[in-house]
Amino acid sequence: MSLFRTKNIENMLAAGRTGSLKKVLGPVDLVLMGIGAIIGTGIFVLTGTGALTAGPALTLSFIIAAMACGFAALCYAEFASTIPVSGSIYTYSYATLGEIVAWIIGWDLMLEYGLASSAVSVGWSGYFQSLAAGFGMHLPAAITAAPGSVPGVTTFINLPAVVIMLLITWVLSYGVRESARINNLMVAIKIGVVLLFIAVGVWHVKPANWTPFMPFGTSGMFNAAALVFFAFIGFDAVTSAAEEVRNPGRDLPIGIIGSLIVCTLLYVAVAAIMTGIVPFAQFAGVDHPVSLALQYAGQNWVAGFVDLGAILGMTTVILVMTYGQTRITYAMSRDGLLPPLLSRIHPTHKTPFAGTWIIGAIFAVIAGFVPLGVLAELINIGTLSAFALVSVAVLVLRRTRPDLPRAFRVPGAPVVPLISAGLCLFLMAHLQAATWIAFVVWLAIGMVIYFTYARRNALLHKHG
């Protein structure tokens, strides 16, 4: 009954090869899935908040956050190509660091995937209501936001956020191939919108707005990096699709690293142009900074396209993050750590149908009744802790199973994985104390569930 019992990797690989999930995804699908998860709230909303924290040095903040993600992405790529099984870092840690660590990671990933879906749904609702207001349509105030989230206004539920979560859940329950097609179309549109902003905005940049470049010093730059780290969350969701990829050894590293590179280049370009058009102090209280920059430049017609791109961008984030959550839950249920209903495969759609709807309904309720600020607090710390652990786990697997075939290997090991873990811990140190307290409470709840249900129902316990 060791807390650190590990799963047999050969058995995991065999289960992945003979599983019931359809193997229909290729490298283009995976790159677009990663972009779909990454480009959303981060580029359309957080850029304004980040500019207030770092000033024009926001571009460096994005690069620092991208470096932390990039090193972690290399570690993810090695694991994904070595153990192409559903479950992402949860699965990898179960094979290397033991069951208790795997449970903690799986519990952490619920913060990343599930709460990110809910948080982005709330952001989606705001942009949707803004777009609808442009056509003269206004929802009753009572159904536009979570209770207590709008000072001086009586609100009961964020109905648009609930509706979009349930619509995405329906799409995911129908089939992964169909979900990927919808995602690919929306990703293509939103990349076009971002490129349109760059092409138009670059002509309105005033270099004087970049001075002083670092008004809040290095501390402001690092604090902004810890904040905009949220903008890169999602590339790891690609690994959740491992059992549905035709050639995982080759395609998963392409999807992980390719999507991160594309998004980093776009983020840095948008941040530089945005702060070059608008003096950074004017982003205070603005939840549509990219649109504001275009309006400031007198390009209102492009700003309308950006609002549409923001809605599509957030839709793909919800789609991919909810997908990742359902596959993490599927893997944990299949291992006995969660109830078996969550891993039951639909005979026609070949998806964890009941599990998808249960997860979607839970986070739809959270999106409807919990304010955005509360949701956002926990997401980054859960993700950073998971990234730090995967960086350690890749070194453990190198030592314990050097014989495993690896289609991709992290270059510069052990230095690169150690740098990855160090950067993640460094960014975690720049998060607020309230976030740490909430994180500890979340882990405590997870430990109660583990010791009362998961540990005694785990297949490793039942089958020795």
TrEMBL record:
Keyword Cell division: no
InterPro entries hit by this protein: AA/rel_permease1 (IPR002293)
Gene3D superfamilies xrefs: Amino acid/polyamine transporter I
Key word Nucleotidyltransferase present: no
Domain of life: Bacteria
Localization of this protein: Membrane
Pfam families registered for this protein in UniProt: AA_permease_2
Topology in membrane: Multi-pass membrane protein
Protein name, UniProt field: Amino acid permease
Keyword terms, alphabetized: Membrane, Transmembrane, Transmembrane helix, Transport
Signal peptide boundaries: none
Membrane-crossing segments per the record: 30-52, 58-77, 89-107, 156-175, 187-205, 220-242, 254-281, 301-324, 353-372, 378-397, 409-428, 434-453
Species of origin: Pandoraea vervacti
Primary subcellular site in the record, as a coarse category: membrane
